[in-house]
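Bench log. Compound arrived from synthesis this morning; before running ITC I wanted a structural hypothesis for how magnesium ion sits in the protein. Inputs:
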Amino acid sequence: MVSCTAMIDRSDHVRTIRRLLRSFPAVALLGARQVGKTTLATNLARELGTSSRVFDLESERDLRLLSDPEPILSSLRGLVVIDEVQRLPAIFPPLRPLLDRKPLPARFLLLGSASPEVSTRGSESLAGRIAFHDLDGLSIDEVGESAWNRLWLRGGFPRSFTARSDAASMEWREAFLRTYLERDVLDVGLRMPPAELRRFWQMLAHWHGQRWNASEFARAFGTSEATVRRWLETLEGFFAVRILRPWEASIAKRQVKAPKVYIRDCGMLHAVLGVSTPQQLRERPQVGASFEGFVVEQAVHALGAKGTECHHWATPQGAELDLLVVRGNRRLGIEVKCTEAPQVSKSMEIAKRDLHLDRLWVVHQGKDRFMMRPGIEALPVTALPSLAGQLGR
Ligand SMILES: Nc1ncnc2c1ncn2[C@@H]1O[C@H](COP(=O)(O)OP(=O)(O)O)[C@@H](O)[C@H]1O
Ligand SMILES: [Mg+2]
């Protein structure tokens, strides 16, 4: 169990970034605000021991310094960190010649608080020179198996997870929602009054884990479907929302075409729902949906899957699969059961057969890992980290 004040070891991420920095002149580390990017980059720069320089584009001074980046960046050696890079898309074209120097005097670590589309707008010219790595919220392997319950309740933002009490954690999350989320959304030019955004967020919390219904959202806000979709996709771009697009198998059955939506961080979901203790969580009707979202995020992280590789699947007759991850020929299924004693259902067998799943894991809250049927395995939530590598490269 991690003590309340300890730094949580994120060395898996550090190792990956170091490996990428060996093969690419630039690496973009992207993740939600407050997820730990600056901390990680600072530690990495210290660890590398070479000279390093950090620019923070949230500071007006650095923003001004780098508005003409070539003279200042070209003289630097070692590791150059540019934080909150989404603030200055104009930096990418002048960066390109600096990445093509031989030998390479400096490598660049770019930190961004939004998706590649937003963070690295204008980085097309860097194709092949830049690698991307997502910094997710804390994972079960980082906090330790025995703390999984706390991770579920509080979510994966380090400050929320390590707060000295559940109440303090909840306060931190409420403040986070009021400040960062609202500011970021305004920054990208969504003209959405804060009260409206809060109400949208509330409605999403109640729809967490369900199929997105644009017309209901549009009606509730007295606006168009295109508008509510843009709101949703903006939140996705800030790593706040996960949209699981539907998978369409080539079978002669009708299949559901609506995506499923989740608030990515379960701690944020609980903050919006007013759930601050384990008991409140257990008593809420949303407990199953909350557990499902938690498992989806942890599974996606463990598998190392990209957002575009993740889907849900359902038929109007009621067969469904919570998470389908597809890479090349590999097809992995995750079905989530908020119970300690999962059982094989008809729906699981249909999904296994119709989707040609290589494996189907039924993730549950109990302790036992066992084969339920050939190819269908019961997996304790604490064993999710063992899925690493299952997707292949
Ligand atoms: N591994 C960690 N363990 C404990 N606290 C952390 C860890 N990483 C970050 N934090 C804390 O979380 C907060 C946000 O971290 P920061 O690196 O500034 O996030 P970001 O740059 O992604 O916005 C800081 O208060 C930091 O001290
Ligand atoms: Mg930062």
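What the model suggests: The chain has a mean pLDDT of 93. Residues 166-187 form the longest helix (22 residues).
ITC booked for Thursday regardless.
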